[in-house]
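Ligand: coenzyme A. Inputs:
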Amino acid sequence: MDIRVLTPSDIPHVQSTNITNLPENYFLKYYLYHALSWPQLSYVAVDVCRPKKTPYDPPKIVGYVLAKMEEEPANGIPHGHITSLSVMRTHRRLGLAEKLMKQSQRAMVETYNAQYVSLHVRVSNVAALKLYRDTLGFEVEKVESKYYADGEDAYSMKMNLEFIKEQLEETYGKDEGEAVGEEGKENGKKDDEKKERKRKVKIGRGLGVGDLVEKNESKA
Ligand SMILES: CC(C)(COP(=O)(O)OP(=O)(O)OC[C@H]1O[C@@H](n2cnc3c(N)ncnc32)[C@H](O)[C@@H]1OP(=O)(O)O)[C@@H](O)C(=O)NCCC(=O)NCCS
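Predicted complex:
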């Protein structure tokens, strides 16, 4: 199974997966809007075990997560939103939804410095609720009455993403950008000193690459 970022050419297949699994469906251009505006946040699960019959066969997309950043957050805090998630019946309970969600959440933090992620789920959707609350750690913020077109209520859920930021900082260190002003000038001087201290090393032929050229060794 391959979990990779969604590309525009996947969209028709993602749309048909969505239509198969959920009553909330979208126009093709809405998927495209996600893919073009936040290309890092949506992922697909592709079953690569099933060989293609012809080179023109489309990828077998068995799950997807469609995600975005909230465009004008009322509270001013940058945060992500899960627009849609589903996995084909044939491929459920393999951990695909969990993986898709985690990939998207990480990208929200890495790319857009999202502080949290939000979503809506039907109050009757036991499987999704279990995934969000028990497996991933979402919390119910409120119930939105008659949120869905058929009149069903939705849980509005939220999950803090601060812990991903901490994990990233532990792994890669703090990314505070280039210092500016006086501090920046000081750092600039130090960089110049470092450059002067750099040792010159020989590269290419000087290192003996020439010796690797084939020679006629039959001659004495
Ligand atoms: C909800 C859905 C996306 C889960 O996909 P999935 O790939 O099967 O989920 P995962 O395998 O990643 O499950 C992770 C955990 O979620 C919970 N979970 C998933 N499906 C569950 C189910 N049917 N019943 C109870 N718990 C479930 C379990 O805790 C599971 O861990 P476990 O298998 O170790 O017990 C999938 O059932 C689906 O596509 N449903 C229809 C569409 C839908 O409801 N989408 C959500 C809209 S908000």
